[in-house]
Write a structure and sequence with these properties.
Layout lengths: L1 E5 L2 E4 L1 E2 L8 E2 L9 E6 L7 E4 L10 E5 L11 E6 L2 E3 L2 E5 L3 E6 L2 E3 L9 E4 L11 E6 L2 E3 L9 E6 L1 E6 L2 E3 L2 E2 L1 E6 L3 E4 L2 E3 L2 E2 L4 E6 L4 E3 L2 E3 L2 E19 L2 E3 L2 E9 L2 E5 L2 E3 L2 E3 L2 E6 L2 E10 L2 E3 L2 E6 L2 E9 L3 E3 L10 E4 L2 E9 L17 E4 L16 E2 L7 E2 L2 H33 L1
Parallel strand pairs: 1-5, 2-6, 5-8, 6-9, 7-10, 8-11, 9-12, 10-13, 11-14, 12-15, 13-16, 14-17, 15-18, 16-20, 17-21, 18-22, 19-23, 20-24, 21-25, 22-26, 23-27, 24-27, 25-27, 26-28, 27-29, 27-30, 28-31, 29-32, 29-33, 30-34, 31-34, 32-35, 33-36, 34-37, 35-38, 36-39, 37-40, 40-41
Antiparallel strand pairs: 3-4, 42-43
């Protein structure tokens, strides 16, 4: 194992052979096949800055660069641990297999407007299909003020590499996505994502595994500049638990899924949604429990929209929402659900009770189950033999035994009336005689 201990100070990029040729010190470190730890000296656990803002000619801003050009079948393992560094205009790039990287309390920032993803980890496709998957763990730390623009570049990108984030902060960044994760597990816990600008989806998840989750996070004051969502699941699985979505601006939705999404203990408040819905699902499985929605600003939008999906919702509180610049707001139902099934259990309405819970008038409206199944009553069948009702009737079925009893009762009643009539007539005859 190799330990690289750094004294406090600022480390700049430099060249051994002049500014126009490499190798370059403090930049583009290739750590392939090593088991290495980099960080401050044991006597000083802070004060080490890697500053690549004034990069040399022919260099890029990668602090660590691993690509294995022309060697897609690299069979060794790489283990990297980096502790307590501040990286200015310095990035991490890995395009090899079998990498385990752990960053503890690493602070990424920029002063030079670097147009590179701060953290970009991928595995080479089909290089070693049976090899252990790479992983990237970020414990603590922060990525801030990273203005890479919004033209297809993410702040953190991971493809075929598991991404685990614990207690990290992202703030004041600009990118197409904050996170772009494909074909891997994604776990984010106890983290804060605030005041970022994004063009597409802030969390773009595709092919994520069932272990993927966003737990105990705070996601606030983020701003979309084009149609997208805070979290978009294009396929795969994700669970979102005990997370707070507040004061985000989106041009489509806060959560959108085309896969399997489980939402539990989540609060949505003060989010501005334009031309969409707070929650959207299409050809998906969507389960939501113990969650609350209130005081969101809906501009030409509604609360939920589900298409061709299997939806289960329980212990949900609908609070008042703010409908803005929408002529259809008074008639907009909270839920639009078509071509699927929805189960509603223990739904609490604290909003304007004149709004419909769900749109039942659609030709292809969802089948509604659970406590709220009577919200969309099915069409009553025509009366059959043995059924009382019909047009204007109650539609209550009557058994054959009850029908026989009714007939016998009618016969006895007619006989009693006939006997009474005979008695009255005989009495009148006696009096007249």
């Amino acid at each position: 194992m190799l330990n690289i201990s750094l004294a406090p100070g600022v480390y700049l990029a430099y060249s051994y052979y002049g500014p126009n040729s490499g190798p370059y010190g403090n930049a583009q470190l290739n750590l392939e096949c090593l088991n290495v730890t980099i960080g401050p000296s044991p006597a000083n656990q802070e004060g080490v800055i890697i500053n690549l803002s004034q990069r040399l000619v022919n260099t890029t801003n990668e602090f660590i660069f691993m690509e294995s050009s022309g060697n897609s079948n690299l069979t060794c393992t790489t283990n990297i641990t980096i502790n307590n560094l501040s990286l200015i205009d310095a990035t991490f790039y890995s395009y090899i297999n079998q990498v385990t990287a752990v960053f503890n309390n690493i602070y990424f920032s920029t002063v030079g407007g670097v147009v590179l993803t701060p953290i970009d980890v991928s595995a080479k496709p089909l290089a070693m299909p049976d090899a252990p998957r790479s992983s990237m763990t970020l414990n603590g730390g922060r990525i801030s003020n990273w203005p890479i623009g919004d033209d297809g570049i993410a702040i953190v990108a991971s493809n075929q590499c598991d991404l685990i984030i614990n207690g990290m902060a992202l703030n004041n960044n600009t990118g197409s996505n904050m996170f772009n994760v494909m074909n891997a597990s994604f776990v984010m816990v106890e983290s804060v994502v605030t005041a970022n600008r994004f063009r597409n989806d802030m969390f773009s998840l595709s092919g994520t595994e069932p272990s993927s989750m966003i737990v105990n996070c705070t996601i606030t004051y983020n701003n979309a500049t084009a149609p997208g969502a805070i979290v978009s699941l294009y396929d795969g699985d994700v669970s979102i638990q005990n997370t707070w979505f507040q004061s985000n601006k989106v041009v489509y939705s806060v959560l959108r899924t085309l896969g399997t999404m489980d939402v539990s203990g989540v609060t949505f408040t003060n989010n501005r949604v334009i031309n969409g819905s707070i929650l959207q699902a299409s050809n998906a499985v969507f389960d939501m429990t113990n969650s609350t929605l209130y005081d969101n600003i809906l501009q030409n939008s509604n609360v939920m929209n589900f298409y061709a999906s299997q939806v289960t919702m329980s212990e949900i509180i609908f609070g008042p929402e703010i409908y803005e610049n929408s002529v259809s707001a008074p008639a907009t139902p909270l839920i639009i659900c078509t071509d699927g099934d929805i189960t509603l259990v223990n739904i609490t309405r604290k909003d304007d009770s004149t709004l419909r819970l769900i749109d039942c008038g659609l030709d292809n409206a969802c089948n509604v189950h659970g406590d709220e199944s009577l919200v969309c009553p099915t069409e009553r069948p025509s009366p059959k033999v043995g059924q009382v009702g019909g047009i204007g009737g109650s539609g209550v079925s009557v058994g054959s035994g009850a029908i026989a009893g009714m007939m016998i009762g009618s016969i006895i009643g007619v006989a009693c009336i006939t006997c009474l009539g005979i008695l009255v007539r005989n009495r009148i005859k006696r009096k007249t005689q």
